[in-house]
Amino acid sequence: MLQIHHHLLLLVFFINFMFIVSAGTLKIGVGVVLDMDSSVGKTSSLCIKMAIDDFYQTHHNYTTKIIPHIHHSESDTLQAASAAIQLLKYDQVIAIIGPHTSSQADFVVDIGNKSKVPILSLATSTSISPIENPYFIRVSHNSSSQAQPIAALIKHFTWREVVFVYEQSDFGRGLLPYLSEALLNIGAHIKYRSVISPSPSHAEISEELNKLKENQARVFVVHLSPKSASLFFKKANETGMMQKGYVWIITDVLTSLLHTLDISSMQGVVGVKPYIPKSIKLNNFEKRWRRRFHTENPNLEMERIELDVFGIWSYDATYALAMALERVGSDIAPTFHRKNNPVTDLDAIGTSKLGPRLLSEIGKTRLNGLSGDFSVVDGQLQPLDYQIVSVIEKEERFVGLWTWHHGISENLRDIKWPGNSNSIPQGLRVGYPSNGVFPQFISNSKDNNTNEDKPTGFCVEVFEAVMEALQPQAPPYGYNHYTIDDGHTSRSYDDLVYQIFLKKFDMVIGDVTIRANRSNYVDFTLPYTESGVSMIVPIKVDDRKGIWIFLKPLEKGLWLTSFAFFIYTGVVVWILEHRVNKEFRGRPYKQVGMIFWFSFSTLVFAHKEKTISNLSRFVVIVWIFVVIVLQSSYTAGLTSMLTVQQLQPDFTDIHDLLAQGDYVGYKDGSFVGRMLLDMGFNINNLKKYTSLEDYHEALSKGSKNGGVSAIFEELPYVNAFMAKYCTKYIKVGPTYKTAGFGFAFPLGSPLVPLVSRAILEVREKKLSKIWDIYFKPEKECTPKNETAVTPDRLSLDSFIGLFLIAGISSTSALMISILKFLYENRGILASEDSICQKMYAMARTFDQENDQSSYKGSKKTIDALGTTDDDDLSVIEDDITSNAPSPESIINHEAPDIVETTIER
């Protein structure tokens, strides 16, 4: 009976086919499965019909024509599958357009694969893959493509954590892995995933929103169906989560269908959707579409109806299908291969002969449609760029573009955020102690313009400098104060840091020390201050003088340099005077002693030896000047050291304090108190203070008068205290290592490495300037006045110029003398003897006395006798010089005695 029924159907179809062909145009059925109760279904079905009309009005000579068979899926998955089977079984359609929901498309695509009929679906879900389903053609955007523009938007506003709200379905889950990856690539992440059922109740949504509110979440990405989204945002508005400080980003499906939602509860929401370029063709079509839609649906309010992107894609897909069908040609009838003994309806349908060829032709189709360039590659429509819009009052407003080639627009238009706020919602909730112990580091104040709480102080300046160094990656932030101890509650800095773990703050700044116990529930950045705990004690006067104090005016380098120049000057003078001055001659030990004696006797100007050579006199004059300067400087320095009071600390070791049982102080609320207990101090001997002035007062009184003998404090506080009271107190003892001040973040926060790198940059370039703003040393603490308390020792740097002059003078005189000696004895150098013989001869010549005094005496005697005849004078001079040994005799080891020629009166 079943076979007879099938044969009758084939006969009817064959008769109809022959009638259509005889008319000259092959009319081929195309199925359309849409939810006609939805806005997308109504819009798309009309666009499909208008596409067919427009195409064949333009291509009236084509031999094929599409006949649409529209079936209503009734928002039901099984109904959609049943409609597809009916279209294939009874209408013999060669392709099916739709459905647009992922759940319905999943069933219909499976039918298309088995029957080899192309399914042109508007479903965006990534759960349906053209690779796994060869007859599935996605004529809309793949949902995964929107992950990039959403991540770019989050990066633009430097948010680091988002909450992903999605539907518990293939449609909702499909976007999750792609969005997670895109966020990780920009240094952000999904902090929490909120799952909503496909048909949620009011109670379910309210419960989930309360969880999100308690979780202190601020930035949300919502990926729901339009029906669920309407209820979700209505409840979010009632919960108070559509106020200032919140960020809501919706995905492309919701953004494209905003006109179908009640947007009164969505003010300030930002969304992304495919960008359809404006064109005359699109504008004219939209006008025609609105007129025809109103004609076919006169009872619908046109204010809630708009031509959406799904309708535009349906139009272009139908256009492309008509073009592909014409290329297939009219010579192939839309027939199916059937099994002989069909068991199911699918077996009865069989497989399409036309399907594989039509699928290939659709993939080759390229056209400039209403959406722009329309082409299908690997079973998917090539993605368009995205536009960013925001919901303002009763409409959506264009904000900017995101393109595949250039990313997000550099200059986005101003956005009205939830709560009608113009300012970017707070990215980081920055906690700080509102009543810090030392206001110089951090304190709370009121902004004169906004009357809002605002922190000030050194730590705040450093934090803002770090945020500036992070640009353009710096996240937006807002300050939130936290009271440490107001007299009613006893809170510590541990409690402040713990607020991050409780999700009250996103980070904490201030004079917060990096501690091991705190790192169990927060992550710290690198420190931005010096690390360690040190001891401050009062200064006492020490009048005791050391036995070696006479060595202290000069530094070691200056002592050694002075001694070297004394020796060098003595050697130079000896060389210059040795041949002409009998006082610089004699046995070797006598000559060595003369070198030291002459040089060092200049200190007290006690040298009795007269210098004959003009060069040596020049050297001595310069050297005496150097000695005078050194002597006066040494005397002044020693006098200062002997007369100025020497200041010493009261205590230098912690053991002295422990042994005497003295009181010590520390900052109230600091971990230093626990550290002192661990060192062995009695808890009764510990005193808490709350300001630098309190420290000064306590140290001034001393342990015996109600004060303390020492203050233990972290180095930043110690440096701040010493900048103000350096003349009265001193830092002594070892520095007990700690990690310094740092910024606290939640465990695993991606901001920690970024902020740490920025801290290094600030420490290198700006930190010292910021420190000087808040802790500039008092006048008495300047280096100039510190020298009055502890006189500086004289260093070599102060006398380099003086020694340079002395060295050049002595060396120049020595070189002139040597060159003159070599010139006078050039005969020895010109001889043919060996180098050793020449050197020996020169040494013997240098060691011989050049009796300048005898020569001068002869001259005076001649003048006294009145002998002025030049010939007689020359005879006498020849007689004097004739007795000098010749160079040849010295070389030949002949050394006749030098005859002293004198002329007696």
From TrEMBL:
Entry keyword set: Disulfide bond, Glycoprotein, Ion channel, Ion transport, Ligand-gated ion channel, Membrane, Receptor, Signal, Transmembrane, Transmembrane helix, Transport
CDD domains assigned: GluR_Plant, PBP1_GABAb_receptor_plant
UniProt-recorded Gene Ontology molecular function terms: ligand-gated monoatomic ion channel activity
A Pfam family per the record: Lig_chan-Glu_bd
Membrane topology listed for this record: Multi-pass membrane protein
Residues covered by the Ionotropic glutamate receptor C-terminal domain: 429-777
Record InterPro entries: ANF_lig-bd_rcpt (IPR001828), GABAb_receptor_plant_PBP1 (IPR044440), Glu/Gly-bd (IPR019594), Ionotropic_Glu_rcpt (IPR015683), Iontro_rcpt_C (IPR001320), Iontropic_Glu_rcpt_pln (IPR017103), Peripla_BP_I (IPR028082)
Transmembrane spans: 6-26, 557-576, 588-606, 618-637, 799-823
UniProt subcellular location: Membrane
SS bond partners: 726-781
Listed PANTHER family: IONOTROPIC GLUTAMATE RECEPTOR (PTHR18966)
Subunit structure: May form heteromers.
Free-text function comment from the UniProt entry: Glutamate-gated receptor that probably acts as non-selective cation channel.
Protein family: Belongs to the glutamate-gated ion channel (TC 1.A.10.1) family.
Protein name according to UniProt: Glutamate receptor
Species annotation: Cynara cardunculus var. scolymus (Globe artichoke)
Source species taxonomy: Eukaryota, Viridiplantae, Streptophyta, Embryophyta, Tracheophyta
